[in-house]
Amino acid sequence: MTTIIDGKQVAASVIDTVKSASAALEKETGVKPGLAVVIVGNDPASHAYVSSKSRMAKECGFTSIQHTLPEETMQEELARLVETLNADANIHGILVQLPLPKHLKSDPIIQSIKPEKDVDGLHVVNAGKLATGDLDGGLVSCTPAGAMVFVRRTHGDDLSGLNAVVVGRSNLFGKPMSALLLAANATVTTAHSRTKDLAGVCRNADILVAAVGRPEMVKADWVKPGATVIDVGINRIPAPEKGEGKSRMVGDVAFEECAKVASTITPVPGGVGPMTIAMLMANTVIAAYRKAGRTPPKF
Ligand code: GUN
Questions:
Q1: What is the CATH number of domain 141-274?
Q2: What is the mean pLDDT of residues 111-138?
Q3: Which residues form the Tetrahydrofolate dehydrogenase/cyclohydrolase NAD(P)-binding domain (predicted)?
Q4: Within 13 A of 28's CA, how many CA atoms are on the CB side?
Q5: Stated pTM of the model
């Protein structure tokens, strides 16, 4: 029997832990975790994401602040807002929603967030801590952190002797995912579009993580029998069977055929997706615990 991971259920259990940790911190120290989310411009998809992040932060018992800035915001104004949030003792996490409008440079903004408030895990200090295996000192990017929760719940904390293959090498996902798997003692290959015999490399994986942005690229004969397959892709493809002009969401893995070969697999939607917001809440509560000099919960 193949196990299909229910991302919504795992995310809900992470949120439960966040809620109790947040309540306990406030009771014991008076510190209420605070998350500030910043959005610039009018992109409807980004507004939908940001609203659900702000809503979830409230549900977790956090101080939840949203700054909505107009499309024509200048670099200096955004930089000043980040400075204000860096200095605000009630704010433990800062997230600037990406992508920013084209006239703004995102990297200087992201790198100006205090590393201890960088709940997106995008600051070079946090990337560096992860790369050096310092998992208890930094903040890890939310989507790889969420995918890793699935890996731990399937294989435990120690991946000694297991081969892991991550397809994709982005700073946002592939690189941190590979670093997390390596820190858990897996033997890790980071594959990408220039990899020779990608199918053959993937067939060697006990844990296969796909994050390439190509709809249903990973086929059944790429999967080692009994492997764990984690699909990080979110792709919209035409679905004429649903009506003219309709689309549906698929991952980077051809789910139906791969589910017959894998022993554990994540669906799209409903797999890694719901974990991203949950891990953002987890990072915020971790940041608040550290600021209060307490040991944060583990996720
Ligand atoms: N836009 C899409 N996903 C993300 C994310 O995880 N963090 C930020 N800051 N922006 C995003």
A1: 3.40.50.720
A2: 97
A3: 141-290
A4: 13
A5: 0.96
